[in-house]
Design goal:
Elements (H helix, E strand, L loop, with lengths): L6 E7 L7 H8 L2 H4 L2 E6 L7 H7 L4 E4 L2 H6 L6 E8 L4 E6 L14 E4 L6 H12 L8 E3 L4 H9 L5 E5 H10 L3 E6 L9 E6 L5 H23 L6 H7 L5 H14 L9 H13 L9 H4 L9
Parallel strand pairs: 1-2, 1-3, 6-7, 6-8
Antiparallel strand pairs: 3-10, 4-10, 5-8, 5-9
Protein name: 4-amino-5-hydroxymethyl-2-methylpyrimidine phosphate synthase
Subunit structure: Homodimer.
Family: Belongs to the NMT1/THI5 family.
Length: about 300
């Protein structure tokens, strides 16, 4: 298909993360163009300007946490979720090196640093994980209103007992600092629709649905490609995509995510969705869990 027949399709994203890798691969390998859509991406600062981009019509979909359309629903504005890219939580819990093996219950009575510059997801997931494991979240002291880089420096300097950050940063930190180790990689902690694509419900048109369908076909091809290729085989691409991280770390994180179910399908899984809704309700972001059908757009057969 020639470029003059491509349909512009603009995304506004809350960040640039390795858990979005299949989208980046789909862009680099021309999978979107094969489906007739010319995908471009903006990453605004602050991140919540993605909602402004949707409101003004400058973006076709936003990419970010499903907790945003959940808490806005029937309060401010309704959004519909059309696809997911990240099927697991991409965080890790760092601790100081010690002989004893880590147990999640060890955090009770301790101080946990958690980055929050990209939104509430870090604290939402970690506190949900504590509740799921019958650990009183109120038994932990949290420092979470600071930038992730600042908190990382402070943790390595002696502040707090644990640090929750993204998996890529965590592994880069442990590679550079022998006194810090990973206690838990949360990608192992079951399904949750961590990162999804959504749009204002009132702005959905047949033309958008057609373009969205083709977008999802290409995104699924990107997911499949990543799952079919050991990260060692495309380490040069990873080095280009994440130049500020040692390539060995990027390869290790990618293969870990491939193994542990970070990427599966563009379809939002009902089980993971319902689990996350329980977590959002436990954090009081929603009054009660939202039914799946109230926010998730039905997947068409051609997209499955």
């Amino acid at each position: 298909m020639t470029d003059n027949k491509l349909q512009p399709f603009h995304l506004t994203a809350t960040g640039y993360n390795i858990n979005y890798l299949p989208e980046y691969i789909a862009l680099r390998h021309g999978f979107f163009r094969e489906q007739g859509v010319d995908v471009t991406v903006t990453i605004p600062k602050p991140w919540d300007r993605v909602l402004d981009h949707l409101a003004e019509g400058s973006a076709d979909m936003a990419l970010g946490g499903i907790w945003v359309p959940s808490m806005y629903r029937e309060r401010v504005k309704n959004y519909t979720v059309f696809a997911q890219i990240a099927n697991r939580c991409p965080l890790a819990l760092l601790r100081r090196r010690q002989r004893e093996p880590f147990k999640l219950s060890d955090v009770a009575g301790k101080t946990v640093l958690m980055k929050s510059g990209g939104g509430a997801s870090v604290g939402l997931f970690f506190k949900m994980l504590l509740r799921e494991n019958k650990i009183d979240e109120r038994s932990v002291d949290y420092i979470q209103d600071l930038d992730g880089v600042m908190l990382g420096d402070l943790f390595q300097g002696g502040m707090g007992d644990y640090f929750v950050t993204d998996n890529l940063s965590a592994l880069a930190m442990t590679a550079a600092n022998p006194d810090v180790v990973i206690g838990m990689e949360m990608v192992s902690q079951s399904d949750v629709p961590w990162s999804v694509y959504y749009r204002e419900t009132d702005s959905i048109t047949p033309e958008f649905l057609d373009a969205k369908k083709r977008f999802c076909v290409a995104l699924q091809k990107g997911i499949d490609w990543v799952l079919e290729h050991d990260a060692e085989s495309f380490r040069d691409e990873l080095a280009e995509l994440f130049p500020n991280v040692p390539v060995e770390v990027a390869v290790g994180v990618t293969n870990g995510f491939r193994r542990d179910g970070m990427w599966t399908s563009t379809t939002v899984p009902r089980g993971g969705y319902e689990r996350w809704q329980q977590g959002l309700a436990g954090a009081r972001l929603v009054n009660s869990p939202l039914p799946y059908e109230s926010i998730i757009h039905k997947t068409l057969p051609a997209e499955a």
